[in-house]
Amino acid sequence: MIGCISRRHFVSAGLGFSLIHLLPRHASAGPAEFRTLTAKSGSASLLGKDGPRTEIWGYDGTVPGPILRARRGDEIRIRLLNQLTQPTSIHWHGIRIENSMDGAAGLTQKPAEPGKTFDYRFTLPDAGTYWYHPHMLSSEQVDRGLHGLLIVDEAEPVEVDQDIALVLDDWRLEKDGRIHESFGNFHDAAHQGRYGNYLTVNGQATPEIPVRKNERIRLRLLNAANARIMPVRITEHEATVMALDGQPTLPFPAENSRVVLSPGSRCDLFIDAKLKSGTSAPIMIDMGREEVEIARLIYVAEPKRVAPLPPARPLPSNALPERMDLVNAFRLEVLMEGGAMSMKMRDLMTQSRPQGTHGHAPRFIAWTLNGKASEGHDPDPLFSVKRGQTVVLSFPNETRFPHNIHIHGHHFRHLDDRDDSWKPYWLDTVLILPGKTERIAFIADNPGKWMIHCHMLEHQAAGMAAWFKVG
Ligand code: C2O
Ligand code: CU
Question: What is the pLDDT of residues 40-68, one digit of tens each?
Fold first, then answer.
């Protein structure tokens, strides 16, 4: 569908880059200095400048919401003002945050009711690419456009010529541009989740990214879709993976310049621009049957410099713990069951409730973790450990669908299939294909109640959620 859109508009040098320094670095902000972020309705030209506008919900009425930007170690202060017709909250995805600021409505806070506010105030322990979104009726609220990036700058500037954020989103649109109202339907909940029919980058149809030869570009990719897994390919360039889910990794080349982003996950790539001026290179997403162009690097002006830069050094580490006590780890298998075409589904059908928690949309139960369907804030935790305990979780996916499990308040290692060695990166969201088992390990060093759930938001709403206690 993206391919049908021939009109491309120049994106100003500030593509996705209305940088908001939340607080002046030196001024000591008084208690009154909160930046208000208003959740409200707005409109966006998702279908291109000449197409019909789409009514959306967004932070400050825009999609994506404003980029919040601060430096590692800074404190940020955000006042959520709810001008929606539903209660809402903000979760700061990937931030190793203080528990009371995590935004998990029903578990760590009461939601902000319509017309009300909630104040978030916390320090940023890690540099990297993070994001924020509601943690309340999120399958509808995130899908309608409530999400934005939280970029935390490294203490020392990173040597790149351009730093460009690309928020990838998947919309289910009617021909006239309206968002399809099919929220909370059983079919999406029990299958792959709400897949759309139309992709945008930074809320736009196929934006162009001006580059110059021999520039080094940092691309910050976020998959903000409810459910679509997005294989992203940068054509005609080598892409080097610098960070995953916000955390720096030892740089490695992306195989075929392609990275797979599951919903909620981020990837920071470095790309050395190497084509001639006047040429261009599309950025593609694999939609299953075909690859579609979602954005395009276009070469403008003269080369930036005569030769490319030397290979990039790794991004500075956020100093996550190097060692884990795997020998004495707390180990738990978290069995994923349910969904269409499963036996489990039959039992669950009898448990589905006709109305949701807030009398909003019908709620269905379609998925379980260790036999239990939950919204992630029932009285009992999935497990409970002492602070500092190493935890190893294994997730056998006995369903017919992929799931991507997200853990709040912690980053984790992705363990090897055969033994407890780990891959050279940290994640906050892990993709588990049908019939496969993935294992993760982390030190539960952040006290509080933390959610663990599938980030395919219809699956989360239909039971694939739980919480664990660190204390
Ligand atoms: Cu990005 Cu619990 O979510
Ligand atoms: Cu899922």
Answer: 999 999 999 899 999 999 999 999 999 99
- Cβ–Cβ under 8 Å, residues 105 and 113: no
Which ligand is nearest the CA of 456, by number?
A: 2
> Which segments of the chain belong to CATH 2.60.40.420?
7-299, 330-470
Index of the ligand 1 atom closest to the CA of residue 93: 1
Ligand 1 atom at minimal distance to the Cα of residue 451: 2
312 Cα: distance to centroid of ligand 1 (angstroms): 31
Tell me the pTM.
0.92
Place of tokens 């497990």: 383
Ligand nearest the Cα atom of residue 464 = 2
Are 451 and 469 in contact by the 8 Å Cβ rule? The answer is no
State the Cα–Cα distance between residues 373 and 213, nearest whole angstrom.
53
The CATH homologous superfamily for domain 7-299 is Cupredoxins -  blue copper proteins (2.60.40.420)
- Angle among Cα 180, 183, 186 to the nearest 5 degrees reads 120
- Is residue 191 in contact with ligand 1, taking CB distance under 6 Å? no
Q: pLDDT averaged over the chain?
A: 91
Report in angstroms the alpha-carbon separations of 420 from 280, 322, 383: 44, 14, 21
424, with CB counted inside 10 A (0-12, 13-18, 19+), is exposed
Q: How far apart are CA 118 and CA 87, in angstroms?
A: 11
The structural architecture, per CATH, of the domain 330-470 is: Sandwich (2.60)
The tens digit of pLDDT for each residue in 180-222 reads: 999 989 999 999 999 999 999 999 999 999 999 999 999 999 9
Q: Which helix (H) or strand (E) holds 345?
A: helix 343-349
* Pairing of the two strands 35-44 and 75-82: parallel
